């Protein structure tokens, strides 16, 4: 009896350690929110974000002789980026990479991949479609002069997109909000396509900045016309 009890106890301890190890290996920290819109000051971005902007940035104020240049860096999971414009805003899925740059102490450009890992085609398409739905609802439009159109998510459209990626490696859509914002919205093949050897893996890239398509010198600056956005939500507590 004592011997069997000891075996059962040892098995349960080992099982518990395996569960803890599995949980630890797959643990992704609770996401924080980097909340901004183009034209906001560095200090406004820091105040509206739960992400530790002050600690993870080259602060513009630390380099006064450099025209207020600076950057906020995201280099590990998991960070949710919120573009906080009340009309044209969107919320990206958690990421482990982003760079938000500042010029004249104001948010100027964002570069990010709104995902934690390279994804199979169907999974990447699912993310891409959710993002496109947000952008369309937020009043972003394709810049037709460079041939941009919305991604086609019909069965035939997905087949064409997959074939295009295998041959050309990427598909890019230029979006904009006239006289305010511009965006590069891209799906690209991150593994397998050049060699023609599956498994193929894909990534989404998003770049956001000012609208360079219709904004003219002399038009109001963004921060002169955009209204304040809502504060960042606190991360969910489990």
What does this structure look like?
This protein has 238 residues and is of the alpha+beta class. It is 28% helix and 26% strand. It is built from five helices and eleven strands; from the N terminus they run H-E-H-E-E-E-E-E-E-H-E-H-E-E-E-H. Strands 2-3-6-7-11-10-9-8 form an eight-stranded antiparallel β-sheet. Strands 1-4-5 form a three-stranded mixed β-sheet.
Helix share of residues? 25-40%
Q: What share of the residues does DSSP label as strand, in percent?
A: 25-35%
**Poorly predicted ranges (pLDDT <50, ≥5 residues)?**
19-24, 226-238
Distance between the termini: 41 Å
- Described by the principal axes of the CA atoms, the overall outline is globular
Mean pLDDT over the full residue set: 86
Q: Sketch the major β-sheet.
A: 8 strands, antiparallel
Number of strands: 11
The secondary-structure class comes to alpha+beta
SSE sequence, one letter per element: HEHEEEEEEHEHEEEH
Strand order of the largest sheet: 2-3-6-7-11-10-9-8
CA-atom Rg in angstroms: 22 Å
Number of helices: 5
